[in-house]
Write a sequence for this structure.
């Protein structure tokens, strides 16, 4: 996990990245301008489903990964257009707009249409006025000592606090808000050209499956594959309801943003989930090349943090480790604790000769 840094250091990292990635900077600016036009108030009524779906993919928006995972957002396009119309209506204070849209009991609420989708749209339309609010920006502000968000405030008020901090930073480093967003990503993830090592995985892993296709995080039928183990996390999240976890666990979310790569003072949880029956917390860690002793220690440490900082009275915390193959060291470690489960996944690949009549 990144350590606390100064704004001067973060700005220097941004400057270095900008000097080495001119074509990507131009692509980001072009995408921002294009989607700014799409989501202008006068164009909301004409947005087609395919246009909105395209925006959610990193390969198109060039800025934000992982916001494509909730297809229910655009399942009712008239309702979505109504929410978007309110979102970009500058005659209403932005905190009021956001609170109305994210009110789960309100007429504008759509599950999945949370901060990670709403605030990028605000930035596209009003790029000099509104910053992006997601876990990356919140973590970056914390690392910079600039996070003044009050957790008990409404979402709208929390956004205003974050936005004020981002506007101040933009002024201090003489960069637009969208490059402050890029600086935050560099600060949290390091100098990669995209959040997934330059590989756009949304369409690769956004597969159509039925309820019988997936058994464990492994695959029951030989119809799907992971090109690399690092895509397992994205696959699990995108197909959560069809895995063995879907019936009993739900992905934890904050402001309708899934708790993946969930940052804490002691590290970053791969996936944070909740037990549907009792609200217990579940820490899921993917081995992904780590030594067995390391991953077991990580899970125990993360479980301890969740128990102290997230769990309420009576809520339990348990862990899950997922690897690509059985591991005796992990199995022996499981004998010493009843609170961690161990899963392996299988991937089958099959070529079928097609016959012509």
């Amino acid at each position: 996990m990144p350590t606390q840094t100064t704004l001067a250091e973060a700005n220097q990292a941004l400057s270095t990245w900008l000097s080495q990635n001119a074509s990507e900077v131009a692509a980001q600016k072009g995408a921002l301008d294009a989607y700014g036009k799409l989501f202008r108030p006068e164009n909301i009524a004409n947005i087609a489903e395919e246009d909105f779906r395209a925006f959610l993919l990193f390969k198109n928006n060039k800025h934000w990964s992982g916001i494509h995972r909730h297809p229910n957002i655009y399942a009712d396009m008239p309702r979505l257009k109504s929410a978007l119309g309110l979102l970009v209506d500058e005659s209403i204070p932005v905190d009021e707009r956001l609170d109305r849209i994210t009110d789960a009991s309100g007429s504008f609420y759509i599950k999945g249409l949370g901060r990670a989708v709403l605030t990028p749209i605000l930035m596209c339309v009003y790029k000099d006025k509104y910053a992006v609010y997601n876990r990356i920006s919140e973590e970056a502000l914390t690392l910079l000592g600039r996070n003044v968000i009050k957790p008990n405030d409404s979402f709208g008020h929390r956004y205003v606090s974050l936005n004020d901090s981002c506007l101040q930073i933009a002024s201090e480093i003489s960069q637009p808000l969208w490059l402050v967003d890029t600086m935050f990503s560099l600060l949290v993830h390091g100098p990669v050209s995209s959040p997934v090592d330059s590989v756009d995985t949304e369409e690769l892993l956004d597969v159509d499956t039925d309820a019988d296709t997936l058994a464990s995080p492994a695959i029951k039928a030989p119809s799907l594959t992971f090109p690399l183990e690092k895509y397992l996390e994205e696959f699990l999240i995108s197909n959560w309801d069809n895995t063995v976890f879907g019936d009993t666990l739900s992905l934890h979310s904050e402001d309708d943003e899934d708790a993946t790569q969930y940052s804490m003072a002691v590290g970053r949880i791969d996936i944070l989930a909740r037990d549907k029956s009792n609200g217990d917390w579940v820490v899921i860690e993917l081995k992904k090349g780590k030594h067995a002793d390391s991953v077991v220690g990580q899970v125990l440490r993360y479980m301890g943090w969740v128990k102290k900082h997230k769990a309420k009275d009576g809520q339990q915390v348990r862990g899950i480790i997922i690897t690509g193959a059985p591991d005796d060291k992990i199995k022996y470690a499981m004998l010493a604790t009843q609170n961690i489960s161990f899963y392996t996944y299988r991937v089958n690949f099959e070529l079928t000769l097609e016959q012509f009549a």
